[in-house]
Specification:
432 residues; alpha/beta; 8-stranded parallel beta barrel; two-stranded parallel ribbon; 37% helix; globular
Length: 432
């Protein structure tokens, strides 16, 4: 399986004039904050169109916040929308039935302690950042979550930031039936709130296979995981009339080898229209011996360089299968997550066909890790993602245009053109 990056090491190959302009903007915006209409600025000043899609929804830029401890309050959503994120995925709620019973209630943990620190990849030897935290899904009541969703949708709409809820449903062991009452009740209530909040079109929902699931007894058997991927989308869709939901499946990194990991993605693709409308690939790694935040019981999810290395490797394998004609259906729209610490890393995902990027760790770094010394951490992270002179999105999109990897039309290079690179100019990379 392909195990290397596409973009070259070292600085981007761009004109001296562009390099000077990017550095000037990087230094200037670290003092003044980002332009209010950032996407228009990038289009007018650099000829870059950074609009994209999160699942079926257009987004103004490809960067979003992954479901977690940083998207569980209206205040956080408002701050992220004001900062200019393209989308926000809300904290994951645990499904329940009409009587309020939750079969996955052990994932609704109130503790939210987080520890941010440096990490060195075991596989890559590269340094990076990692966040270890306690806590899993939404710990409040379902009614409280629905109120939160309603308010968050309104806040996002006011600023042009797409907001989507996330849910974890019952996952049966081998020989056990699905608790479809949980699927039906939870999905229908979410769809009701979606409409009441004034959202146009079908409910958009992200189904979360959390990283902590990988270390549980539920995910210890490969047949169980494959069964979930084949049957969970159908169970969710059965709650609503045909066409009333746009479903994203957020895949976990299993504890098994790369061959099986690739099989998990392939299984979703093979379900066609009965499976995922889009795929979020893929959440954190899991180490049963890793200390939890605050010195709790051993076993914790983690990220960093090994996470992005594995994700990019599996996505490369997926594109190889697609280009070889070995998949029965087209690969759904992809959203990437995992060690997206720079605009350059975001483009590594995009060159493998990923249309949007979800982050969590990048929004929690110590203050001195950002060049911008004002504003929220979301604003500071976006500043680094777009304008860092060495590893920012602007510099490396210009690199792709200068080197002819993306052609640009009418002098404008688009992020979506990068996501299609693997189909034509990049074919040789995946098929060699």
């Amino acid at each position: 399986m392909i195990n290397r990056l596409i973009l070259p090491a070292g600085p981007p190959r761009i004109s001296r004039e562009d390099a000077v302009r990017i550095r000037r903007d990087y230094e200037r915006f670290s003092e003044t904050g980002l332009p209010e209409r950032l996407e228009r600025y990038l289009l007018e000043q650099y000829g870059l169109d950074v609009s994209s899609h999160y699942g079926p929804r257009p987004i103004k830029n490809p960067f979003g916040k992954a479901s977690g401890q940083l998207s569980l309050s209206a205040y956080q959503v408002q701050a992220d929308a004001e900062a200019g994120l393209g989308f926000v995925v809300l904290k994951t709620v645990i499904a329940e039935d009409e009587q309020g019973e939750r079969s996955m209630k052990e994932w609704a943990v109130k503790e939210t302690r987080m520890e941010v620190g440096r990490i060195v990849g075991k596989e890559t030897g590269e340094p990076g950042w990692n966040v270890t935290w306690q806590g899993r899904g939404w710990h409040g009541s379902f009614d409280e979550y629905l109120s939160f969703v309603r308010e968050a949708l309104q806040l996002g709409r006011e600023r042009g930031t797409v907001v989507v809820p996330s849910c974890k449903y019952h996952l049966p062991a081998i020989g056990e039936d699905f608790r479809l009452d949980e699927y039906r009740y939870t999905t229908r209530r979410l769809a009701q709130v979606w409409k009441e909040a004034g959202e146009a079109g079908p409910l958009q929902l992200e189904k979360d296979f959390s990283p902590t699931l990988a270390g549980s007894d539920r995910a210890a058997q490969r047949p169980a995981i494959i069964r979930w991927l084949r049957e969970v989308p159908t169970a969710i869709r059965s709650a609503l009339p045909d066409g009333d939901i746009r479903l994203g499946i957020k895949l976990m990194n299993t504890l098994f080898d790369d061959e099986f990991q690739l099989r998990t993605v392939r299984t979703l693709v093979e379900e066609g229209a009965a499976g995922a409308d889009y795929i979020v690939y893929a959440n954190r790694l899991y180490d049963s011996g890793r200390p939890a935040a605050g010195g709790g019981k051993a076993g914790a999810a983690y990220g960093g360089p090994d996470l992005s290395a594995r994700n990019l490797r599996i996505l490369s394998g997926l594109r190889r299968l697609e280009l070889q004609g070995e998949l029965p259906f087209p690969v759904p729209v992809l959203s990437g997550t995992g060690d997206v610490h720079s605009g350059k890393m975001a483009l590594e995902y995009a060159l493998r066909g990923v249309a949007s990027l979800q982050m969590h760790t990048l929004f929690q770094l110590p203050g001195d890790a950002y060049s911008m010394k004002r504003g929220s951490k979301t604003q500071r992270a976006l500043h680094e993602l777009f304008f860092h002179p060495d590893v920012g999105l602007v510099a490396w999109m210009l690199h792709l245009r200068e080197t002819g990897e993306i052609a640009g039309r009418g002098g404008t290079a688009s992020f979506l053109e990068v996501t299609n690179w693997y189909r034509d100019r990049g074919r040789a990379f995946f098929l060699e």
